[in-house]
Design goal:
The chain has 387 residues and is mostly beta strands. It has a single domain, classed as Neuraminidase (6 Propeller), CATH 2.120.10. 2% of the residues lie in helices and 42% in strands. It contains one helix and 28 strands. A six-stranded antiparallel β-sheet has the order 1-2-5-4-3-28, with no helix packed on it. A four-stranded antiparallel β-sheet has the order 6-7-8-9, with no helix packed on it. The protein is globular. The two termini are 23 Å apart.
Length: 387
């Protein structure tokens, strides 16, 4: 298979923890290689007849440690490989090259639920797996090449083209559809593409460039958030709500995510690098809040000062709070960073100087369990998310 080079798709900012800040400034202008997935008319292999995997089970049963294999094969175009658990890319220590900067390329690994690994493209050394995305159930792999998105069925050999001019934006929680965006300097339009039959439905949604589609619940309820600053020059806000729109009836309702009195003293949601994400079963929306005025002290030499932050969630259907998850701040060379929602769990990566841990958190209870460990300086992309 050939690979092509793509510029990273313009996206909203994402807070990626101390490692991202450590490498701040090298994201802009990076280039990402995306593997050219070819359609096939061959019949499905044995893997294609396997039953679908529920998102809650997608990350269950991973090996205790995932490491790059000695020889990494390309994702085969002529046979199914089964649902994927996650994508990852390893940035080797000292990988930044002054001559090439972030353009130095690393392999993007696809890890199947069965434990196999395949190369699905290349990405800049200091950037995560850009221009790639997995559906919440791990069945569909979306990859961008030639200025266009393509969606490959990993339980089969077919792929579907996303109409030209649209960017992949958000997956539906049931993995049956994907939200697409038309971007311009003055407006943002949304559409819904069925991955099963390829039908496209443009949505009549009044949106600005700062309107974000957070998720699509079961293919019908679009969750939107307006990130326009609350006042000229405002950098933070103490309250935040999302709008849930029924794309069939156009009925809307507002769901508060951050309520008055919910935040602690000095704590706020910042619109500088906003993190608002939704999905899972049951469908929830999570926002990241913090204390920008409190900076950690007594850090190891060379470690950037990143303030502590927390995740606050809300159940989309009931509007009830889904819990609070306090992320471990940079302390002795480690930090926790939000990665996404898989099933009912919130998934984090925990970075240390020795390894990367993929961690699942049960909302409400707050209990953590390590799903697997990976090499140090690993960027992980879980199902339902996109860089």
């Amino acid at each position: 298979m050939e690979s092509t080079v793509e510029e990273p798709t313009p996206r909203r900012g994402r807070g990626r923890g101390w490692l991202a800040v450590l490498m701040a400034g090298v994201l802009a202008g990076g280039a990402a290689g995306v593997l050219a997935l070819r359609p096939s008319t061959d019949g499905p292999s044995a893997e294609a007849t396997a039953p679908a995997v529920a998102p809650r089970d997608l990350l269950a049963g991973l090996p205790a440690r995932v490491v790059p294999p000695p020889a990494l094969a390309d994702l085969p175009p002529d046979r199914a490989v089964g649902p994927a658990a996650f994508l990852y890319h390893v940035e080797q220590p000292g990988g930044f090259d002054e001559a090439t900067g972030p353009l130095r390329q690393r392999d993007i690994h696809l890890v199947t639920r069965a434990g196999q690994q395949f190369r699905v493209g290349r990405t800049p050394a200091t950037v995560g797996p850009v221009n790639q995305s997995l559906s919440p159930d791990g069945r569909w792999l979306a990859a961008r090449r030639g200025g266009q998105w393509w969606i490959r069925d990993l339980t089969d050999t077919t792929e579907r083209a996303v109409p030209t001019g649209y960017e992949l934006w958000r997956w539906s929680t049931d993995s049956a559809a994907v939200v697409l965006a038309e971007l311009s300097q003055s407006s943002r339009g949304f559409a819904v593409l069925s991955v099963r039959d390829g039908s496209l439905r443009r949505l009549d949604v009044a949106a600005t460039p700062l309107t974000d589609a957070v998720t699509l619940v079961d293919g019908r309820h679009l969750v939107l958030v307006d990130l326009t600053p609350v006042a000229p020059g405002a950098r933070a806000r103490p309250e935040l709500a999302v709008t849930v729109r029924d794309i069939d009836t156009a009925a809307t309702r507002t769901v508060p995510v951050l309520r008055p009195g919910q935040l602690g003293p000095g704590e706020s949601f910042t619109a500088i690098v906003p993190l608002v994400d939704g999905g899972g079963t049951p469908a929830r929306v999570w926002v990241q809040v913090g204390r920008p005025d409190l900076q950690p002290t007594d850090l190891p030499e060379g470690m950037p000062a990143i303030p502590a932050s927390s995740l606050l969630g809300v159940d989309v259907r009931s509007g009830e709070p889904a819990g609070r998850i306090d992320l471990a701040p940079v302390a002795t060379g480690s930090a926790e960073v939000y990665e996404g929602i898989v099933g009912a769990d919130v998934v984090l990566t925990r970075w240390t100087r020795e390894r990367t841990e993929l961690v699942a958190v049960e909302p409400g209870a707050g209990s953590r369990r390590v799903l697997t460990t990976l090499p140090a300086l690993t960027r992980v992309l879980v199902p339902g998310r996109q860089w």
